[in-house]
C-alpha cells in the first residue's frame, strides 16, 4: 500500500463538504496544485474548510465564463482535496495550495447559511487486484509515456523517472494523466473512469495519438531543415550550371527572352528602317552578358520600338450628322469650332487622306477648350490623349533623351502615342502658352517640328533615333493668350477663338449641362432639388465673375451638397426648391457687386479691357491740382498704357481752343491719372480714348455721361485706331449694366461676333476721331452728327 493510500485511509472524509468550483483545471488524486480564489462563495468555502477538517470538494466548471455556477454548470465527478496552505492577497483574493485525496461524486447541492455551497460526497472503491494483465498494461503505459517525454521538448526527463517508480495502477494512471498536454474534456473523462485498468487503457489510447502527432511534427521540422540545406545546395549547383552553360553557349532565360523578342518582331508591322534597327540591337543583345547594364538598356529600347503603333490606326467615323449631334450634345454654342471639325470630316470623306490640321483654341479659362477636344475625338471615333505643357522647360520632355544617359526614355509625344495605341489619335497639347525655357533648351522650338504639317511626317525622337510619322495625328493646342507664344510657333497654328459666355449662354449651359451632371454626381434627382428660373441668373450675376462656367459649376455643386445634407438630416423632406432669395442661406452673401461702372462725375470715365479671363471694365480717374504741368500716373500701369496717357494729354492740350479750355491750365496745373485696383497690372493702348475723355472732362469741368463705356487707341492727332477683343469687352460692358459703347470705326467688322441679344440691348457707336468721342461722352456740348449703329442694322 502506498503512502497516499495509507494517508487517505487515515483521514475520515465526512458525508458533506464545502464546494470549490474551479475553471480550466482538472485536479487528480495525489496531485498538488496552487489555486487563485476570488469568488465570495469559494473564499467562504475555504475559510470553513480551514476552520474544520481542512477538506474541500474541488470540481471543474463546464463553462469558464459563468461566475455563479449552478448544478448544471459543473461536472458530477470531482476530487476531495486537503487544503495545505492559504495566503491572503491584496484585493481580498486568496491563494491556496491543495492536494487531491480521492475521487468522489457530489449528490446534494445547496447553499449553506454561512454563504458557501455545500455538497454531499459519494466515495468510490478504486482498489484492484494485481494480475499479469494489469502488470502488462502498466508496463505498456510507462513505455509509451517514456516515448512521449522524449518526443516532447517541453517535458523534462525527470517526470518519466518519477513515474517509472510508481507501482499502484490507480496512482500511475492519475499521475500520467496530470502531465499530458490534452484537452480538459479528455482529462475529465479519465477522472470519471473509476476502474484503474480502464483508466490506463484510455491513457494508452491517448498516448498513442499524441506520439503519432509528435512524430509528424518532428518529421516536418526535419523536412524544413533539410529543405533549407537542399536550397543552399541547389543554389550552389545552379550557379555552377549557369557558368557551364555560358561556356557551352546553351540557351538560358535570357536567350528565351531574345527568342520572344524575335518572334514579336516577326509578327509586328513596323517600317523597314525600324525593323533593321531592332534586328541590329537583338544581335547585340545575344552577344552580351545577361547581367550587363547595357543589356537592360537595349531590351527596353527594343520593347519601346515594338510597342509603338507604327501602322495601327483607328477607322474614322465620317458620318457628319452623327458628329454634329455629338458636338451639340456635349457643348452649347462654339459654332466656329464645330464648323471647322465638320469641314475636316467632309474633306476627309472625299480624299481619304489629308494632313492633320493643327488647331489652336484661344480663349479664357472655363469656356470648354479642353472638353470640346474630347468631343472631337468621340465624334471622329479616334483615341484621345492629352499632355499639359504648363511648366515644361526641358526640350527633352518633347524630344526625349539620348540612350547614352542613365534612365533615358522617349519624350512625351512618343509616350502619348504609345498610350493612345494608334497612330492617328486626337492629341491635345494643353496650355501651350505657358511653356517655359531655361538652360536645358526651349520646348517651344522642339514643338515646331511636331506642329508643322510639312515636317511631322518624320518626327525624330532622340531616344528612338528613328523617324515616326505624326502626319495622321490631329493636334489640338489650347492657350489663354497668344502673347507668350513665339511667332514661329504661332505661324503653324490655325487659330480658333473662344469668346466669353454671355449670361444667357451661361444660364442655358447650367440648365442643360451643369445641373443634370451635378445632380447625378451628388446622388440627387430633379424632383429632390428644383431651381427656379431666376435662381441660376442670380447665381451668375452675384456669385460668379468669369468668362467661362467653372465657378458657376462650383457654386451649383455647393448648392447640391448643402441640399443633400439637408435631405439626409430631415428625412421628412422630399424636395427642396431654391429661389433667388434662398441663395444667402445656402451660398452666403453675394461675392460681387452688380454696379461697378464709373459714377457720373467730372474726370471719371469707363474704359474696357481684355484679359486672359475675358473682358473687364476699367475705371479711369483724373484729378487736377496747382502745379507746374506734371503728369502723375498710378495704378500699376504698363509702359504702353503710360504712353497712351501721355498721348491723350497732348491731344487734349492741343485741342484746348476747340474745347474752350484755358491754355494756361497746362502750365500751372498738375494732373494725376489713377486706375483703381492698384495691385492689378494694367497695360495696352485700348484705354487711350477713355484716358483722353477723362482728361478733357476734368479740364472742361464737365461730367462724363453715366453708363457709357469706350475702347480704342488714340493718336496725337486724335484719330482712333482699331483694337482687339471687342466681343469680350462688350460682354463685360453688358455684364456691368452699361447701355452705350463707343468703339473704333475699323472694328465694325467684329460686330458680327457679338451675340444678337447683346447687340439688341447695347447701343454700339463707331467713332473715327476723339472729337466724336468728346461730343458723345461729355454732357453740355453740342453733338456732331455721327452714325448710330445698333445690332439689328449691323448684325
Give a structural overview.
The protein is α/β, with parallel strands linked by helices and 795 residues long. The chain is built from 28 helices and 24 strands. A 7-stranded mixed beta sheet has the order 18-19-17-16-20-23-24. The protein has a 5-stranded mixed beta barrel with strand order 1-3-4-5-6. Strands 8-9-12-7-13 form a 5-stranded parallel beta sheet, with helices on both faces. A hairpin with a 5-residue loop joins strand 4 (77-88) and strand 5 (94-111). Helix 3 runs parallel beside helix 7 (196-248). The protein is elongated and about 150 Å long. Residues 781-795 have low confidence and may be disordered.
Per DSSP, what share of the residues sits in E-state strands of 2 or more residues? Answer: 15-25%
Large-scale geometry: elongated
User: Percent of residues in helical segments?
Assistant: 40-55%
Care to count the β-strands? 24
Q: N-to-C terminal Cα separation, in Å? A: 129 Å
Structural class comes to alpha/beta
Rg, rounded, reads 49 Å
Number of helices: 28
Q: State the low-pLDDT regions, or none.
A: 781-795
| Mean pLDDT, all residues | 83
Q: What is the makeup of the main sheet?
A: 7 strands, mixed
How are strands sequenced across the largest beta sheet?
Answer: 18-19-17-16-20-23-24
Short précis:
Helix content is 44%, strand content 17%.
List the keywords.
single chain; 795 residues; alpha/beta; seven-stranded mixed sheet; five-stranded mixed beta barrel; 17% strand
Amino acid at each position: 500500500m502506498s503512502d497516499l493510500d495509507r494517508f487517505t485511509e487515515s483521514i475520515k472524509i465526512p458525508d458533506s463538504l464545502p464546494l470549490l468550483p474551479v475553471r480550466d483545471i482538472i485536479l487528480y488524486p495525489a496531485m498538488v496544485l496552487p489555486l487563485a480564489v476570488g469568488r465570495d462563495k469559494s473564499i467562504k468555502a475555504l475559510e470553513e474548510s480551514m476552520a474544520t477538517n481542512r477538506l474541500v470538494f474541488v470540481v471543474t466548471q463546464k463553462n469558464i465564463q459563468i461566475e455563479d455556477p449552478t448544478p448544471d454548470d459543473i461536472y458530477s465527478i470531482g476530487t476531495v482535496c486537503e487544503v495545505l496552505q492559504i495566503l491572503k492577497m491584496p484585493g481580498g483574493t486568496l491563494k491556496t495550495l491543495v492536494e487531491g485525496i480521492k475521487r468522489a461524486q457530489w449528490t446534494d447541492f445547496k447553499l449553506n447559511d454561512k454563504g458557501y455551497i455545500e455538497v454531499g460526497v459519494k466515495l468510490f472503491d478504486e482498489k484492484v487486484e494485481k494480475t499479469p494483465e494489469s502488470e502488462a498494461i502498466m508496463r505498456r503505459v510507462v513505455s509509451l509515456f517514456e516515448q512521449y517525454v522524449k518526443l516532447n521538448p517541453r517535458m523534462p526527463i525527470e517526470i518519466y523517472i518519477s513515474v517509472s517508480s510508481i507501482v499502484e495502477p490507480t496512482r500511475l494512471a492519475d499521475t500520467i494523466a496530470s502531465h499530458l498536454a490534452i484537452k480538459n474534456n479528455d482529462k475529465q473523462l479519465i477522472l470519471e473512469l473509476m476502474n484503474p485498468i480502464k483508466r490506463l487503457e484510455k491513457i494508452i489510447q491517448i498516448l498513442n495519438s499524441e506520439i503519432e502527432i509528435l512524430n509528424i511534427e518532428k518529421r516536418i521540422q526535419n523536412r524544413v531543415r533539410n529543405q533549407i540545406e537542399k536550397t543552399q545546395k541547389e543554389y550552389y549547383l545552379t550557379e555552377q550550371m549557369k557558368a557551364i552553360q555560358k561556356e557551352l553557349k546553351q540557351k538560358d532565360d535570357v536567350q528565351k527572352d531574345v527568342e520572344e523578342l524575335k518572334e514579336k518582331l516577326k509578327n509586328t508591322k513596323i517600317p523597314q528602317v525600324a525593323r533593321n534597327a531592332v534586328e541590329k540591337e537583338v544581335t547585340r543583345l545575344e552577344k552580351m552578358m545577361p547581367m550587363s547594364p547595357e543589356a537592360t538598356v537595349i531590351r527596353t529600347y527594343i520593347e519601346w520600338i515594338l510597342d509603338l503603333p507604327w501602322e495601327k490606326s483607328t477607322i474614322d467615323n465620317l458620318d457628319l450628322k452623327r458628329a454634329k449631334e455629338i458636338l451639340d450634345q456635349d457643348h452649347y454654342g462654339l459654332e466656329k469650332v464645330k464648323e471647322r471639325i465638320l469641314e475636316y470630316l467632309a474633306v476627309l470623306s472625299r480624299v481619304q487622306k489629308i494632313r492633320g490640321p493643327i488647331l489652336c483654341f484661344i480663349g479664357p479659362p472655363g469656356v470648354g477648350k479642353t472638353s470640346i477636344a474630347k468631343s472631337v475625338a468621340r465624334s471622329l471615333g479616334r483615341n484621345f490623349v492629352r499632355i499639359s505643357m504648363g511648366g515644361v522647360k526641358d526640350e527633352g520632355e518633347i524630344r526625349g533623351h539620348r540612350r547614352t544617359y542613365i534612365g533615358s526614355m522617349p519624350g512625351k509625344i512618343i509616350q502619348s502615342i504609345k498610350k493612345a495605341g494608334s497612330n492617328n489619335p486626337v492629341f491635345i497639347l494643353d496650355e501651350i502658352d505657358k511653356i517655359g525655357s531655361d538652360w536645358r533648351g526651349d520646348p517651344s522650338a522642339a514643338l515646331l517640328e511636331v506642329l508643322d504639317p510639312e515636317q511631322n511626317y518624320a518626327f525624330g525622337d532622340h531616344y528612338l533615333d528613328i523617324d515616326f510619322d505624326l502626319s495622321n495625328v490631329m493636334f489640338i493646342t489650347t492657350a489663354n493668350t497668344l502673347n507668350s507664344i513665339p511667332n514661329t510657333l504661332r505661324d503653324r497654328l490655325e487659330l480658333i477663338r473662344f469668346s466669353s459666355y454671355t449670361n444667357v449662354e451661361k444660364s442655358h449651359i447650367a440648365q442643360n449641362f451643369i445641373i443634370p451632371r451635378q445632380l447625378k454626381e451628388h446622388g440627387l434627382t430633379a424632383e429632390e432639388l428644383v431651381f427656379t428660373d431666376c435662381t441660376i441668373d442670380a447665381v451668375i450675376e452675384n456669385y460668379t465673375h468669369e468668362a467661362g462656367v467653372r465657378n458657376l459649376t462650383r457654386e451649383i455643386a455647393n448648392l447640391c451638397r448643402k441640399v443633400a445634407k439637408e435631405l439626409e438630416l430631415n428625412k421628412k423632406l422630399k424636395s427642396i426648391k431654391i429661389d433667388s432669395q434662398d441663395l444667402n442661406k445656402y451660398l452666403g452673401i453675394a461675392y460681387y457687386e452688380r454696379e461697378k461702372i464709373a459714377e457720373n462725375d467730372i474726370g471719371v470715365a469707363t474704359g474696357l479691357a481684355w484679359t486672359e479671363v475675358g473682358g473687364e471694365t476699367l475705371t479711369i480717374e483724373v484729378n487736377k491740382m496747382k502745379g507746374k504741368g506734371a503728369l502723375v500716373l498710378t495704378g500699376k500701369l504698363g509702359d504702353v498704357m503710360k504712353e497712351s496717357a501721355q498721348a491723350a494729354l497732348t491731344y487734349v492740350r492741343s485741342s484746348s481752343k476747340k474745347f474752350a479750355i484755358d491754355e494756361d491750365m497746362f502750365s500751372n496745373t498738375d494732373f494725376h491719372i489713377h486706375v483703381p485696383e492698384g495691385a492689378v497690372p494694367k497695360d495696352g493702348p485700348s484705354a487711350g480714348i477713355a484716358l483722353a475723355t477723362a482728361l478733357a472732362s476734368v479740364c472742361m469741368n464737365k461730367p462724363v455721361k453715366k453708363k457709357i463705356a469706350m475702347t480704342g487707341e488714340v493718336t496725337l492727332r486724335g484719330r482712333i485706331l482699331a483694337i482687339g477683343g471687342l466681343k469680350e469687352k462688350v460682354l463685360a460692358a453688358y455684364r456691368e449694366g452699361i447701355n452705350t459703347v463707343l468703339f473704333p470705326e475699323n472694328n465694325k467688322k467684329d460686330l458680327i461676333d457679338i451675340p444678337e441679344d447683346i447687340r439688341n440691348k447695347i447701343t454700339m457707336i463707331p467713332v473715327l476721331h476723339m472729337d466724336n468721342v468728346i461730343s458723345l461722352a461729355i454732357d453740355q456740348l453740342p453733338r456732331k452728327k455721327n452714325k448710330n449703329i445698333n445690332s439689328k442694322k449691323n448684325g
